[in-house]
Amino acid sequence: MAAQKRGNGGKKLSITVVFWMLFIVVIAFFFIANLPKITANLQKTRFGDRLFNKPVEATDAGQELFFSNPADTPEEGVAQTPAFPETGIKPALPFDPAFPFGTDNSADLQQTPPLPALAAGQEKTPAVQPLPVSPNIRERTLWFVVVDGGGGIFLKPVKRSLPAAAAPLVEVITSLLTGPDSAESASGLTTLIPPGAKLINARIQGNTAILNFNESFLFNSYDAEGYYAQLRQIVWTATEFPNVRNVQILIENRKVEFLGLTLRIDKPWSRETL
């Protein structure tokens, strides 16, 4: 029985020895097959020099330096920073975890690169100057309407340059009541505000513009759709001012219940409610 156990132990030992011998042979085979590549990589990385702490030369004879621009050739006596050979891009500044996307407080970003010197006889190109804008002119948005072939009525904004006035809301609504000019009419714009409508006065109370019109504002020859469109023109134009959200219509200093037969104007209107 003891002899049998020793025999089994001997067989297991023999199998283990054979396995490791085969493993070493396979490793040796792959090493010999790839020996030229391994040698080239060791020479390229100077693994031996780094292993034994030998100084590493900057370049070997015939080795090419990579720069971000072909024109960035080394000058004699001037040290050049090589780029990464894989990309040809010069190394970036050290990464700062506190500013992963960079910071405008860095010295590099605050430096202004010098302008190139002008050649002999070359004149400096003057900087483009913006057109002067008169402080007495303001660009305002007025809302007119477009009537399509099927009779549909749509609002459309128009930019106008108007004089800066002490009462800009009065200036803008008065300009709207004059209707579109010749160029605007040629582009298909029109107005459905009655031609005899006049603005008597206007004021802003809170975020509500109170507009006081004459009696002609109540009579529109285009019936219900005309009344609705004229009110929208007024409300949209007045609410172009950032401090105006609602518009209350008055007629000769009094509230009137209806514009037309069904459109109530005894309460303020906004873009959201109209």
Describe this structure as you would to a colleague.
With 274 residues, the protein is an alpha+beta fold. The protein has 3 domains: 10-56; 63-95, no CATH class; 137-264, no CATH class. Helix content is 30%, strand content 16%. The longest helix is centred in the N-terminal third of the chain and has 32 residues, at 2-33. The model is unreliable at 56-75 and 77-115 (pLDDT under 50).
* Helix count, DSSP H or I runs of 4 or more residues: 7
Note the gap between the termini.
Answer: 107 Å
The main pleated sheet reads as: 3 strands, mixed
Number of strands: 7
Q: Please, what is the average pLDDT?
A: 75
Structural class: alpha+beta
Helix-strand pattern: HHHHEEHHEEHEEE
- Percent strand equals 15-25%
Q: What features would you highlight for this structure?
A:
alpha+beta; two-stranded antiparallel ribbon; 7 strands; 16% strand
List the SSEs and their pairings.
Layout (H helix, E strand, L loop, with lengths): L1 H32 L1 H11 L1 H5 L55 H4 L26 E11 L5 E11 L4 H10 L4 H5 L12 E7 L2 E6 L9 H16 L7 E6 L6 E2 L3 E2 L10
Helix pairs in contact: 5-7
Provide a brief overview of the structure.
The protein has helices at residues 2-33, 35-45, 47-51, 107-110, 168-177, 182-186, 223-238, and strands at residues 137-147, 153-163, 199-205, 208-213, 246-251, 258-259, 263-264.
